[in-house]
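Office hours follow-up: a student asked to see two folded examples consecutively, so here they are.
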Amino acid sequence: MKTRTSNIQSPAPKLGGIEIVTTETVGMRESGFGSVETCRGIADVIGSDHSGVRFNLVTSKSDLREIVDRRPDLVILCVKYIFDDLGGEVIWLSDFFDRNDVLHSGSAFKTLEFDSNKSIAKTFLRNKGVATAEFFLARPKQFRADETLPLAYPLFVKPLDAANGNGIDDDSIVRDFPSFEAKTRSVVHSYGRAALVERVLTGREFTVAILGEGSDQAAHAMPVEITTPANKHGDRILGAEAKAANREVLQPIHGVLRSQIAEFALLAFGVLGGRDFGRIDIKMDAQGVPHFLEANLVPGMTRDSSYFPEACRIDAGLSYRDVILKIFDLTLQRKTVPATV
């Protein structure tokens, strides 16, 4: 299952058009591949191997219709959705391009819901026999005292649908009711949805980059361990501040542990219906049993910092260019295979 190549070459068929699609992500809960600059860089990488690459910074359904009218051979989606400045609606790009019969990168619309709602993903996987931490949803004043909580302390309180560690900080692990109520109130106020409250897992943490199944290969998992310094409470919390300051460390894992984490990630990715690429986050409990944390099916792609390309580099020796062209290749391979939507 593991490969150690650093020179993946993307095929160079003659294509009618390749569209790179993103939007301004500042202020968005889910920023996909990353900033506009990151997405322009991705367009440049693909353009170095293929002609006819067009970069699109879209703001409306009208912009998307212009792309459809050009009938491109494929579209690389750098974000999951856009806000239509004209119509005032949220447009999910995978759904839009599927409805218009345009080949696009990444998972189908129904699968991306598992990315955007951690509760739905955890419930679905648990019902399929995949381990995940026990959890419940909470709003301020929903519970009145310790004895009314569904789970015992310590508990981890975080947003239901935010990415990049947003909403996660040193107050996310709570050990008493006032702390629970304060963090729940903060999350609901900031994100407008119920807070996700999980049983705390105290074991090692991993993130796994996955390049999906192609016409000539099985899906390939590239796991790395994530460690971050303990805070004043002795907790190791991977929140937005730690990520922004690059305080976390990604390191390779080997042997039986690597196989165990890779297989677990591939199982979760497959059960969720992931396609082309994605990232699965995993944490062990005190007994060393892997548990699903969350799926990121349009993961960050910022060069030299985002977990997905870094995991590919650390575990498999893939360069940033290798990773981008492999994603392109996996999408292109589906051009001759009927899509499952």
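And the second, which I mentioned at the end of office hours:
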Amino acid sequence: MYKKFYFTSPINLLLIVCLTEIISMTSYATWPIFLVKLQPIWNLNNFQTGWVSGSFFIGYVIGTPVLVGLTDILDSKKIYIYSCLISFFGAFGFWVFANGFWSACFYWGLVGLGLSGTYMPGLQILNERLDSIKRIKLLPYYTASFGFGTALSFFTIGLIYSFYNWKIAFIIGGLASLFSLFLILIFVKPIKKNQGKKNLLL
């Protein structure tokens, strides 16, 4: 269905994966920026606020060995897509259901879990589709996209902070994850792991 849209050249593939990673990180700064408003609204003490912040990284640490490990047996494109869904549900769940310490920890942790399945699996998308020479030349640009994604997230959510409330920020973060899912779905060609290197895009 999406075959005519697949990017097969190394540069185009790099650009779409980098762009997708940057967009998918839009949620990254939502809690760090809006915690100053949510802490008094939810009557959180500093200990609880710190744990909500840490739940993101707990989700990331829990998800990394599992989701990255799955790229050895599954196409990294699939891992990326499902991880974008996790981030989407985390951000939208925060918007709809978060009303205090435990719910904030859970849904913010889901956002972190989603990131663990996009950053390194995104790198694997390129590894699986580039030859060794092109990997050396192009992969550093992808790793730099994490920094761009972080910066853009703080910039975007900071603007939202100035004009809108925290719910709008989480809605936009969730939609960004969903948009990233469709970019990967449409523009990255799937591969079958059991067919070996002959099917990789060189």
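Two things to take away from it. The two ends are 22 Å apart (CA to CA). Residues 132-163 form the longest helix (32 residues).
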